[in-house]
Amino acid sequence: KTAGSDERKQKATYPALHGIEASRREARRLIEETKSRLAVFGGRSAPLCALADYVVERKS
């Protein structure tokens, strides 16, 4: 879907309800928690951890 489509349709999104910065903080917190839980799998979890980092840090 295109950027801004939820806003144009006035859909309730997490960032709309909680703000961008709070949403980013929560996303980072959840990523760190997830990576901590994946540590039990050792290096096999590296691709999934890298993907999680990419998703939370991407700009578009």
Give a brief description.
The chain is mainly α and 60 residues long.
Write a structural description.
The chain has 60 residues and is mainly alpha-helical. It has one domain (5-57). Helices cover 67% and strands 0% of the residues. It contains four helices and no strands. It has helices spanning 5-8, 14-18, 20-38, 46-57. Helix 3 (20-38) packs antiparallel against helix 4. The longest helix is centred in the middle third of the chain and has 19 residues, at 20-38. It is elongated, with a radius of gyration of 14 Å. The N and C termini lie close together (12 Å). The mean pLDDT is 89.
List the topology elements.
Elements: H1 5-8, H2 14-18, H3 20-38, H4 46-57
Helix pairs in contact: 3-4
Question: Which descriptors apply to this entry?
Answer:
60 residues, mainly alpha, 4 helices, 0% strand
The structural domain count equals: 1
C-alpha termini separation: 12 Å
Shape: elongated
Order of helices and strands: HHHH
Report the sheet with the most strands, covering strand number, pairing sense and barrel closure. Answer: none
